[in-house]
Design a protein that fits this description.
The complex is a heterodimer of chains A (493) and B (304). Chain A is an alpha+beta fold. Chain A is 60% helix and 16% strand. Classes of the chains: A alpha+beta (493), B alpha/beta (304).
């Protein structure tokens, strides 16, 4: 039952019946039915069904039996009464009272439902009866009582009255058309009523037994139905507490089983996704660490390059110029100037190389294709034993971030192929599709175990490539075999 | 749920209760019993007519009730028609004056006359004579041509005291030097002539001896019977069954009854009654008319 201000169940939506009273009843039924648990609902349904069915069948059978029995009783009464009437003729005409009495007694004794029989003569005097010596219920002779008895079966009249021994059907049969009197036969319903009551009792007992069996069946059914649901609820709570290893048991291949499976799948997916997030987090952490390290390395390299290369050149230039300052001779001066110019020019070249290595200005100025071509030729120069085959099918400039990402990914893939793959040929294909741009870097090296490398989280390079692609909503896939490795990148535009 | 269930239960029980009750019936307490009221003695003295079971009880009522009604109208007092199963019982009633008038068998008269002086009143007359015969009948399909052919068969007697139905066939056997016990396989009593005819017609009995008047009357009533039975022997003529009165009947009453019966054929109502009885009129008869019967009775020794 609902408590407090918050109802535990929603009320009936709208008004399902046209009558207000009916709706009110429906509301009450809904409130009662909605307020109890499933076990009580099923139990109630089973009990109500069996009881209503049992009672209805019992009542119906009882009514039919009573009607059939009463018809049969009347039919039997009519035949017995007409038999009595015809067999009474001779004893009455011969004044054989004893034979008449014997006839009545035997008839009553031989018919289980016969209560009494008596014969009245023409003057309504009782000439024989089966009530014995104790006297006669003279009330039966009251002429106003049976007067309304209709002629039901030919000449035989039938009427029903109540007695202290139950209802009695009386048949009144004329003897010799009434000229010799009438015979009246009383049949009691008691025996048939007992049969009807016995059958009714048996049926009610059966109904009770069926209801009992129904209770047991309902309890088993309820247990079968609610057990998986309760398990599911418990598992949900465990998952809610953070235990993603919790699984709901699959009890049966029904809807609840499907629900449990779907729930388990959901928890498994959640677990996997959480694992993936953790892995990615870990990789990002490593990347960040390596980025910082790489940044420091790069700075150290630039500092060394500046100190060892450009610094030395500039120092030597400064020493040359100071020597020139303190010298007066003109001729040797021209020779010295040429030397200084060469040093300055070399320094400028070193600065340019450094600058290009940091970021190719071509990428910004002429686009990805030109930058990649430049890179490929430099790569070929740096690695003379590797053949580089580059195809760029880019009719127009791509967005800046995409060009940068693709440039760095191709750069990383080629470096990897040269450094780890021992490749002798590298093929690069960049092409524009309808809404994407695709890059494929293929080498003929020894390949590597992609899953192991990914799992080790040691390869910042591979992770960096993936991150670059995913940051732009794209995807990166690596296939590797002992015959070589292929990197596929696709970035949406 | 529980409330709904309870509601259904209550409705079912109510329906059951309503179904069980019917219209209010009259009530009789069968345990209240009192002695039957005594019949008040009749204010008028009834005339009691005894009729011997020549016909079956119902046949007797059919034939004699009109006579009773006629006499009641003529005498101005109720008439009771009394029957008994055997001739002997009716003879006893005549002897004890329990009847004022009796229609009985010839042998019953012969015996009653000898035993207690039963008095002849009148006798019916048919076709100008007051005689009848004993006739031996067999089923139509029977091959029997005479009493001798009925050896080891089943034979129906009418009444132990019946002249035509028992004494005459026993007399016939006696002439052949036989007794019914030896001659027949089995015998039984039907206690009326019309039942004996039915027994033969239905082949319950292989033969019977019956009153010719009853047979003729039965054949008139039911012509189909003729095809089911066959008469193989007719006796000599005997005195017709008479109308008798007890010896103690007051002479005035005896004279009144005689006059009434003797003049019946003179009025229309009386003629109708006589037609119903199958006779023309009642006539005076002499005791000697029954000597032939007496001879046969004495020869057989039955009833002595």
């Amino acid at each position: 039952m609902s408590t407090g201000d918050t109802p535990l169940h929603t009320p009936l939506s709208g008004a399902p019946f046209p009558s207000r009273r009916l709706n009110r009843w429906a509301e009450i039924v809904w409130r009662v039915a909605g307020g109890v648990d499933v076990r009580t609902k099923i139990l109630g349904m089973v009990l109500a069904l069996t009881t209503v069915l049992g009672l209805a069948v019992t009542l119906q059978v009882r009514a039919v039996m009573t009607r059939v029995f009463m018809e049969e009783l009347e039919g039997r009464g009519v035949s017995v009464a007409s038999d009595l009437a015809s067999r009474s003729v001779d004893p009455i005409l011969l004044n054989d009272t004893y034979a008449l009495h014997e006839l009545l007694s035997e008839t009553v004794n031989n018919h289980p439902d016969a209560l009494y029989a008596f014969v009245l003569d023409r003057d309504n005097q009782v000439i024989a009866h089966t009530f014995g010596d104790a006297g006669f219920p003279v009330e039966l002779l009251n002429p106003t009582l049976a007067v309304a008895a209709p002629n039901l079966y030919g000449t035989i009249r039938h009427w029903v009255y109540a007695t202290n021994e139950g209802r009695v059907h009386e048949m009144i049969a004329p003897i010799m058309g009434g000229s010799a009197g009438v015979v009246r036969l009383g049949l009691t319903e008691a025996r048939l009523q007992t049969v009807v009551n016995t059958v009714t009792g048996q049926m009610i007992l059966t109904t009770l037994l069926v209801a009992l069996a129904g209770i047991v069946a309902a309890m088993i059914l309820t247990w079968l139905l609610t057990r998986p649901i309760l398990d599911l609820v418990a598992t949900t709570k465990e998952v809610g507490r953070g235990d993603l290893q919790a699984r709901a048991p699959h009890w049966a291949d029904d809807e609840i089983g499907t629900l449990a499976d779907a729930f388990n799948q959901m928890v498994a997916d959640l677990d996997a996704s959480r694992r993936a997030i953790a892995e990615k987090e870990q990789a990002r952490f490593l990347l960040l660490k390596k980025l910082i390290t790489a940044q420091e390395e790069e700075r150290k390299r630039i500092a060394r390059e500046l100190h060892d290369g450009v610094g030395q050149m500039l120092t030597s230039l400064m020493v040359g110029m100071r020597t020139l300052q303190h010298s007066d001779a003109a001729n040797p001066a021209a020779h010295r100037m040429d030397e200084l110019c060469a040093t300055a020019s070399e320094t400028l070249e070193q600065v340019r190389t450094l600058s290009r290595e940091l970021r190719p200005s071509l990428l910004d100025d002429l686009g990805l294709a030109a930058a990649l071509e430049r890179y490929a030729s430099e790569f070929a120069r740096a690695h003379p034993d590797i053949t580089v085959d580059l195809h760029c099918d880019l009719p127009a400039r791509l967005p800046g971030p995409v060009e940068t990402a693709l440039y760095r990914i191709v750069q990383e893939a080629m470096t990897n192929a040269a450094r780890h793959g021992k490749a002798s040929a590298i093929s690069v294909l960049v092409s524009r599709r309808a809404n994407t741009v695709q890059a494929i870097v293929e080498d003929d090296g020894v390949g590597f175990d992609v899953a192991a490398v990914r799992k080790r989280q040691s390869s910042v390079g591979i992770f960096g490539m993936t991150e670059r692609a995913e940051l732009l909503g794209g995807a990166l896939d690596i296939e590797s075999s002992p015959e070589g490795a292929t990197v596929y990148v696709e970035i949406p535009l | 749920m529980t409330r709904v269930f309870l509601l259904l239960l209550i409705i079912s029980l109510l329906a059951a209760c309503v179904g069980a009750q019917g219209a209010a019936l009259p009530f009789v307490d069968l345990s209240v019993r009192t002695p039957l009221p005594q019949v008040a003695p009749a204010e008028l003295t009834h005339l009691r007519i005894g009729v011997a079971a020549i016909l079956s009880p119902q046949g007797t009522v059919a034939s004699y009730s009109k006579l009773a009604d006629y006499l009641a109208a003529k005498l101005g007092r109720p008439v009771d028609l009394l029957q008994r199963r055997t001739y002997a019982e009716l003879n006893a009633m005549v002897e004890e004056s329990q009847v004022e008038l009796a229609f009985i068998c010839t042998n019953a008269y012969v015996v009653g006359n000898e035993q207690f002086g039963m008095e002849l009143l009148l006798a019916p007359e048919i076709n100008g004579e007051s005689v009848y015969y004993s006739q031996l009948i067999v089923p139509a399909e029977s091959a029997a041509q005479s009493m001798a052919d009925l050896r080891s068969q089943v034979f129906a007697f009418t009444d132990p005291m019946s002249f035509t139905g028992r004494i005459y066939p026993v007399y016939l056997l006696q002439q052949m030097g036989e007794t019914p016990e030896r001659f027949f396989q089995r015998t039984f009593y039907t206690y009326s002539h019309d039942r004996a005819i039915e027994a033969v017609a239905d082949s319950v009995a292989d033969g019977a001896a019956v009153d010719s008047l009853v047979l003729e009357y039965a054949l008139q009533r039911n012509p189909a019977l003729a095809s089911r039975i066959r008469i193989i022997h007719t006796s000599e003529a005997f005195g017709i069954p008479p109308v008798v009165v007890p010896p103690t009947l007051p002479p005035r009453q005896k004279a009144q009854l005689r006059d009434l019966l003797l003049t019946m054929h003179t009025d229309a109502a009386g003629q109708a009654v006589l037609r119903e009885l199958g006779i023309d009129r009642f006539v005076e008869i002499d005791n000697a008319a029954y000597d032939g019967v007496r001879a046969v009775v004495h020869a057989t020794g039955i009833g002595e």
